[in-house]
Amino acid sequence: MQILMIPEIGHYALVIAMLMAAVQGVLPLAGAATRRPLWMAYARPMAAGQLLFVAIAYACLTASYMLDDFSVANVANNSNSMLPWYYKFSAVWGNHEGSVLLWSLMLAAWGYFAARFSRELPRDVVARVLGVLGLVGMGFLAFVLVTSNPFERLLPNVPGDGADLNPLLQDVGLIMHPPMLYMGYVGFSVVFAFAIAALLGGRLDAAWARWARPWTNLAWAFLTVGIALGSWWAYYELGWGGWWFWDPVENASLLPWLSGTALMHSLAVTEKRGAFKSWTLLLAIFTFSLSLLGTFLVRSGVLTSVHAFANDPSRGQFILMLLGITVGLSLLVFALRAPRVGHRVGFTWLSRDALLLINNILLVIMTITVLMGTVYPLLLDALDLGKISVGPPYFNALFVPLTLVLALFMGLGPVARWKQTPIRLLVRRLWMAALGAVVLGVTLPLLFAEHWSPAVALGLVAALWIVLPMLRDLFDKTRNASSLGAGLKKLSLAYWGMQLGHLGVAVTIVGVAVVSNYSIEQNVRMAPGDSVEVAGYTFTMNGLSNRRAANFLADRANISVQHGDSRRSFEMNPEKRLYLATRMPLSQVALRPGLLRDLYVAMGEDLGDGSWALRVQYKPFVRWLWLGGLLMAFGGVLAVADKRYRRLATAPDPEARATGVSGREASA
Amino acid sequence: MNHRRLLLLLPLAGFLALAVFLYQGLSLNPFHRESALMAREFPEFDLATLKAPERRVDRELLTGGELTLVNVWGEWCPECKREMPQLLDLAERHGIRLVGISWKDTREKALGFLEEFGDPFEVNIFDPDNELAFELGVYGAPETFLVDGDGVIRYHHTGYIAPNDMTETILPEVEKWR
Questions:
Q1: Cβ atoms of residues A148 and A100 within 8 Å
Q2: B1 CB near a chain A CB, below 8 Å?
């Protein structure tokens, strides 16, 4: 007997939130256009109210899950009374309705924080930014209410128990992956709103770029962590040791990441040099559009993937409509209002400006490459030219060389100067790094690997070429200080953020190169007592057992592993689980992680006669993939903490002074 | 409107074109592309039949020019029981040729199953050791493959064939490739 009203309260809260979002979307924008302070003043309270009511709705849905209220269709379809409490909690976003609600919650949260931390901004800018966010929020809340209501009831025939959460999703990695990813997707809405506000208000200067930068970096950092978590989850949960599949949904998250990366760099140029203004605006629009496109691809079921929850055309049409209105309108505003004549900012082809421009072009080409590969099957299908699927060979053939070219320019960029760099200076600063990268990159695999691989050598050269010039730059920047410590202290957090971000890219490149070329995989048949050697490790099967947990049965193998002739051994226990409610079998991988290598054992089939098919893998440097991602994200966060973003803006708000109302009081 | 403005409209034009395709994509069924074996030849095999252990069958069973539904089933699989009425209907009422793969079963149990639930299959390939099913990439019964007269896989259905699946997907696919 649950408290029966919870779902209705949630539903009602959602309706209120949508109405508040509508007010937030309409009044402040109209107020900014007609210069009415009272209308503009609606922006902040509505942003707070919208967050409050979406949060109530979300809390109600979570309560229905925790209380096993199977009269709610969403709970009945995706939960089960045997599920541990933390999976009930995360099951809320393990399905279509709940995840769109989470999306809306995060959008409201970003909007609220944009309202909180924009005290120093002119009031019309705040009104426009929050107004745009309100419109986006309204669209998504309407989507939830009209097509994906998570509070729908199954009355009067309430099922006795739920159908269970998809076993693939019963996992810690999945508790964290979607929220991080959504934080990234949704976070780009803030810079998008800033871009539209700039287009509408006609104000686009260094101060604008400085406001937009921290939001962009933060969203990007979340997205980076989200992608890394997704890759990690696929690695250990899907059971075949892959870490990136070029699956449409993975691509959907990579697209805004790539264009978001371009946006971060182009914002830097706009702030420091006042250049690339239209380009920056366009990238801001594109990045958020790609986030929406990603949502569309996943939620509409247009493309097949493990992530596609539901295939309901009405939902697809609604999201496509949202996408069309949002992107279409913003691109129209862009076409009509983009800065008339960008004043020419002079720079030569050997300057940081030019190198960042090249970086931007490369990143955009990479984005288009991935976008094409992802939607191409759809285009052909729509034109009735047959059904094909674009696989990893296409992506690898284009993406890998582009990454190498990008790495080439990443080595040059940080040491080049704005406006122009004398070529002599570049050569002087870089020749040692170039030599070091080539020598080390070529010889390291010779020394530490059994066979030399040109691909690995190339990857190492690229990574070193990113890292060594940065070290040289650190050295140059600190050598005039009284001590190394004093010199390092003087460097800004933004600089450290850049360094760490680039280091992260280098670390990921090393990981990709090594794990793709030096991994060893063996499929073996083992019975108790058998042993097999893989990459210098001896795996011995000690025995098999059965285990029963709350919601699954498992066959479990006990395997002891020895390295070389070492006495010490450790145990690995892979499982083959059968989830009771869905009758779905799932392999639980045994992992022995390490900074330099992972060992990976997955159980395949019971071959009868007491033996099992096992897949044993040796994965060198695989952790570096995600370590690099974390470094990148940390770099992004570090740059946000830079003190220049906390300095108050210099531009006063004339109207506020005239009426005696400051931004702070207006929102109170 | 000068030339530069027209240039600025390009992103919008590009997006609108993409949106049209996405809209068309909504009405297409993505599950057609699902199996990695789609449009490939049915794998080679050489296995005994369920009813007659001495009779061996191979790929030629499926290249005789007649369209065939190959259904992977097992006595231990509850979904397979729910699927049998639809399979019987496909065979008897619609005259479609069905070949079964009796997967990870004992002969005795599998024959008992057919006794109890009916036998829509022209012949059953006996695959107790997951040989052919492994080649097909089966990871749970029931799964059904539509194989055309030349032994090429044309459609793949995972999970049980519900009565509405029959009219909505299986029969149209059969019509398409017959």
A1: yes
A2: no
